[in-house]
## 1
Amino acid sequence: MTVNDAQFEYDLFVIGAGSGGVRAARIAAGHGAKVAVAEEFRIGGTCVIRGCVPKKLLVYAAQFSDDLAHAGDYGWTIAGATFDWPTLRDAVARDVDRINLAYTSTLNTNQVAQYLDRAEVTGPNSVRMKSTGQTVTAKTILVATGAWPIMPEFDGTEHCITSNEVFGLPTLPRRVVVAGAGYIALEFAGIFNALGSAVTVVNRSDAILRSYDIDLRDRLLTLTRARGIAYRFHATLDRVEKCADGSLLVHLGDGGEPVPADVVLVAAGRRANTAGLGLEQAGIALGHRGEVPVDGDGRTACPSIYAVGDVTDRVQLTPVAIREGHAFADAQYAGKKTAVSYDAIPSAVFSQPPLAAVGLTEAEARRQFAAIKVFTSDFRPMKNIFSQRVERGFYKLVVDGETDRVLGIHMIGPDAPEILQAAAIAVKAGLTKADFDATVALHPSMAEELVLMR
Ligand code: NDP
């Protein structure tokens, strides 16, 4: 359905060429809309350029450390193995360039005009390019500007980095302090620890990965401590001091000894990227976390402006932004309304070892259901069987005691994210524990534990 309206230059102007924005632009253009997108940094956005994708490549690099440690147990002699950060960093950067080009060529193929500039909203149907001052009009504007790392206030923030800068470090830091204990903090703590840095995680409370099941969090804490990651809990960053030799000294609010570091990575959450975006020019009041409030269709308080992805601060995950962008484009330009479902969204933390979950935690289920049953499996992954390191995996199924429906699956151990993606289908489909029990195990595998819990 083409909607070209001569009054405007474009049917749709998308601000932000990340996961949600690119998907919306491509699908809308495919439905016949005249589309433009503006991107102030690089086409691809956080996930592709400085998030999920380069992070996962670093996670693979980190896992070699484990494999090398185990190799001797399996009869291999690997003499003189060393790690070179610039080789990895540059290989990752080249892959990011490749994906950036692929995204750009997708937009080109779909005839989506690209403005490599910062666009700011100047009214319900107009945006202005920051560097050229050019005004562009569109019947509809889609805000897909994502989120930006939060830097809490303390002295010496200028000496710290966020996940935006971590991929470009000139050398592998000998000592890393990671502030925060969420996804980014624990993923990078695991990466640097495995690559050989001394890592200290500093967190304001003693709760890591707050949204995950407590048994997974406890297990991850135990296992990462055993791998050598130090934790300083109930500690805030008071001051980061730059010493004469260029190294850093991190002063904490817990009254304990300051921590020496070469890199301080702050991972204290991400906030909707709306500063200076001009949405108030179109009558849109931001939420208290700077997010763009939207209705179920992604529409803001201004009828011609929509928003998708992290900027709406609903679920900060790439696949969700992609779904929201796709649903928006289908609804607006093909008359096909698809509701984005927010329940049973699987997620993973690519820590070492990784953990993954879908559905309700045990605590959430106990609050919401009259009777629940919990099944657990605490096992030694076969791959570790020869290893001196006793690192056990743990799986948990949370089941509604009345209907037998599986409400949640939680797992920590090698390949947990790969296993959980498939298991999430069962939770989304509302399958029961009896369905799991009726499924024959795939032996020998780690995934088989899922159907063997009694
Ligand atoms: P998270 O929300 O996961 O964790 C933030 C951490 O910082 C928490 O430990 C939090 O503590 C702490 N914190 C928050 N505010 C402050 C503050 N002012 N001072 C000190 N500490 C603070 O955020 P991340 O930055 O790790 O990641 C952002 C988002 O990106 C995630 O929520 C996730 O949606 C997404 N992401 C997903 C990944 C994946 O799917 N694997 C990987 C990376 C990111 P407290 O618990 O007390 O609030």
## 2
Amino acid sequence: MHQMTLAEIARGLADKKFSSEELTKVLLARITQLDPQLNSFISLTEELAIEQAKAADVRRANGESGALLGAPIAHKDLFCTQGIRTSCGSKMLDNFKAPYDATVVAKLAAAGAVTLGKTNMDEFAMGSANESSYYGAVKNPWNLEHVPGGSSGGSAAAVAARLLPAATATDTGGSIRQPAAFTNLTGLKPTYGRVSRWGMIAYASSLDQGGPLARTAEDCAIMLQGMAGFDQNDSTSIDEPVPDYSASLNESLQGLRIGVPKEYFSAGLDPRIAELIQNSIKELQKLGAVIKEISLPNMQHAIPAYYVIAPAEASSNLSRFDGVRFGHRCENPQNLIDLYKRSRGEGFGPEVQRRIMVGAYALSAGYYDAYYLKAQKIRRLVKNDFMAAFNEVDIILGPTTPNPAWKLGAKNSDPVAAYLEDVYTITANLAGLPGLSMPAGFVDGLPVGVQLLAPYFQEGRLLNVAHQYQLNTDWHTRTPTGF
Ligand code: GLN
């Protein structure tokens, strides 16, 4: 039962092969049995899950249908869930029970999805390995000695290990696509503004975007359908109609123009990954796509720009966690400054503190022009590169990451080494573009992802290309041993 995708679950529920309650119980038992190896959940919400599953079964019995009605999912632990701990992977929010549901949570619940729990993540979504969580590192089900990627590592590991079919995640610089690549999943970061950020605890507000992690493009389409849409509570939410993502999955790829940036195949890329990317290109050519070499000349400046902008926004967003308005409060403060210092010093882990310091520095008088403003100018150049490229091609293809998942602890002593791994993903966030990662093969038994990028609001096209690719390849069906 646990092997089923969302699409298969929807068919099984519609055909009354099983109930949502039965399926939910099977998956909850599986999580209890297997998750100790992975640490992919911070909280399990068994009671809520059973209650929602029963309600979904009643709605189906009353004639309602819908791909998410009765489908078990989980939420990354930065989506606010009313009355349920929403920790953001931080000691700072260890005892925070959100007073309301995030829009994404409310929308998925209204569609009938069943929440099994809240998934582990890098603290405040800062990281690429899920090792900065206050609740401990998450293990990669493909090799328990390796990281699952981050910051949505809990969602990724849980879905990859077949603990559940899909989960929500967020992507500020790659945190949906990179863990998807590391765990053999399909992950979609939508256009900035497509999915509401209301109730999604902010890391870097101009970059953050929620999206789905699932095993197939077909399932990502189902999840995105439930998540996307205008929200008047989010001032950056975009009032554009949401297309039917499942309806466009079967469009032909004949004549599709795929751009492959020459900058992608530089020295930093593992040659074995380069080969798998070439194979995926050949596969898409067989389906009628036409390949064109393109250039993204400012790509090399994207990492430094991102690692100024993201910490700058984070330093501002995280100022609310001061032990008074929000978050952990230290014992016996001597005065107000002592209260702030110790509450923040105790509540935030080292990576979060590092970023707050970098961000506050970049925004400070005298350095603002030199760092923050300069980074914003680079951001515009990165966007312009994409706009020029999309005059010539329909989608851009390349590796999701330069290397496969590294060993736990391997990059802990050198944060910059981890930052450099974001080279292929962060440009989409800087430009606000949609991006998808899908399985493309294995290197030393570890999964490799191929990334597709599209113009604004072309999520449907990304899902269409990925679905056609998945109809003709079987990488996405491979299951990690032991799960
Ligand atoms: N690895 C990037 C960072 O640490 C991206 C994280 C994310 O997308 N949330 O900032």
## 3
Amino acid sequence: MLTITDNNALREQLIEWHQVGETVALVPTMGNLHKGHMSLCQLASANADRVVVSVFVNPTQFGEGEDFGAYPRTPEKDARQLSRAGIDILYAPKAEDIYPLGVENSTRVFVPVLSDALCGEHRTKHFEGVTSVVMRLLNIVSPNVAVFGEKDFQQFVILQRMAEELHLHTRILSAPTLRDDAGLAISSRNQYLTAAETLSAPLLYATLRDARDKLLDGESIAKVESAAIKTLTNTGFSADYFSVRRSSDLSVPKKVAGKLIILVAAELGKARLIDNLQFET
Ligand code: PAF
């Protein structure tokens, strides 16, 4: 595996692959890699000849008072895992290579409406930061496919919309959420949980499953959403939202029909956890 920090060196390698007709997949990450990221890498390998994994803790997607400084950074461990998985390039750019004019003066990419809903209501500018960095990474690497996790389902829908609307040539793929044995979605932020919180965290997914079953049994969306928020609050979570949406565009469904998704974001101690569950009637 090559570890590349320099954009010119990356470009040279990409040109070589391009000349022999090899396809490229990009897996954008913020590092601190876990099993979930490795499953994205597997999907990437299955869909292209070469895989580039970017590791960049993107400052523009963190709000004031969020965990940009504390976000876990484990570069050596990440490199070992990626090398073991047969990844071709670990691309670890410096902030000045991604934002040459500095973060404040940088050009932004924004997908309206979708970016303002759900997590966007609670983390203003978060998705603008995500689309602004992913657009740059896609332009730098020009991959045939890029892979994102379904745990961040809103992010995936926004990036798909961006790619479609801006006529990008990269196919945006998603990989299913990986869970631990108790059902908790694997995330870098799980390490902020205390031992006691780790025991109650799987309730998030249990609440999603319970809500899905009630919706399929004919209960109303409003009733199911408010009961779930009550359950989460009673067990120590502080819920930002618990919401039933259409999975295609995250719009609010009038009734329980078609392809739906239930999305939740809730704080438990220092960790802000998100999860979702897709289902079909
Ligand atoms: O999902 C993430 O880890 C980040 O939002 C991403 C897509 C790497 C952009 O910084």
## 4
Amino acid sequence: MAKNTTQKLFTDPVVAGLRAGERKATVLLHESLDAIDARNKRVNAYLSVAREHATARAAEIDAMAPAERGKLRLAGLPCGIKDVLTVEGLPATASSRILKGYQPPYTATAVQKLIDAGAVIVGKLNCDEFAMGSSNENSAYGVVRNPHGEDRVPGGSSGGSAAAVAAGMAPVTLGTDTGGSIRQPAAFCGVVGVLPTYGRVSRYGLIAFASSLDRVGPLAGNVRDAAEVLGVIAGHDVMDATSSTAPVPDYTEGLDKGVKGMRLGVPAEYFGEGLDPEVREAVEGTIARLKAEGAEVKPISLPHTRYAVPTYYVIATAEASANLARFDGVRYGFRAPEAETLAQMYRKTRDLGFGAEVKRRILLGTYVLSAGYYDAYYKKAQQVRRLLAQDFLNAFAEVDAIVTPTTPTPAFKIGEKSDDPLAMYLADIYTVTANLAGICGASVPCGVSKDGLPIGIQILGKHFDEATVLRVGQAVERLQETA
Ligand code: GLN
């Protein structure tokens, strides 16, 4: 049986305390580095650690005059970064062999905003190769283990980002979510993960998987710290034409207002066959308690939900096949030796550089985009995507937020699904819809299984209504404290 080996870490917010000088950046960083020294060998969350740079930067922040530090919204906050985001001076592998040795010459906008706000970058975090996966078993640099049970997966693809927070290796991390990769590992590791609305956070400097679905967002030990970080990374960026110019609110304001009078939709389609009884009990119990706090709970229907997984795997693979064409051995990272012609060099580099799951997706994506099949698969998937988005628009005419389980089961065992891609794809059944629809959401811990494994509740919100999602999340978090 999986043993719960992790005490609750970073469940108390740290950002405001750092800003006020009540908490020391150096102390928090040392705690994170100690946890890395103690557990990273086994958990394998970090691929690289910027120890010296981080230590120097934390000391600098602690030495600042209070007025100066107070201006930095994330003064001294240690942050880990998923290895699909570029940081100048640090490697970026996307957990692929094909990017081994690649040093990006620029920093992703979301990371630059963290740095400008005073955050301390601790290092780069393991993930599934090119963010393709639901278990973090697809990394070329080894699987990540779930800190709550080391025989379990941490979820994916941002498994390193979730495991790092759960193991105390950083109070906050950045992840990315194309079909669930922030929310699903957050649920499996018992931390908070936020999916911002499409366009809310710049994708500049994110190594693209599926550009119409990819999002960058925070993972943290509590809702308030996640809200602080989202407020910093959100906003328009001239380097990303799809980033929104909508003003960024203060996400910490109104966080404690509670759910009284709020209309929460519960979609029948997310509570059907395949839902683990313990997950059901934890999520339904949480919804009942939100109702007791004054929320109006309404049954709703999202009728096209059953088409979401196939639609996602057509669109995501199509976009991936195009995005991954740039990795050819010429421009970045690894180049296969011993090729005699240019074409052979491309082929050998891609053959040796990409792992099995990435190849499977390039093949599938190329197929659904090919001349004879485009209309039958890709175009059809785009049409169904529209219907899925419309389901949500209809629902949000009647409710303020939607609550569902984040995942059908708690964290599964390492190896349990790795030979069965279809079973693995079903791990995303409750999360891919939000990416297809462009809406925002979050996963917040709402219980623990009898094996000591965390369970998450998913909260989905209207486009650009992260504030409501976070407010519901905060209410869920408070329920945990009083449980
Ligand atoms: N698990 C999904 C996939 O493998 C989602 C991944 C993600 O969100 N990056 O495509």
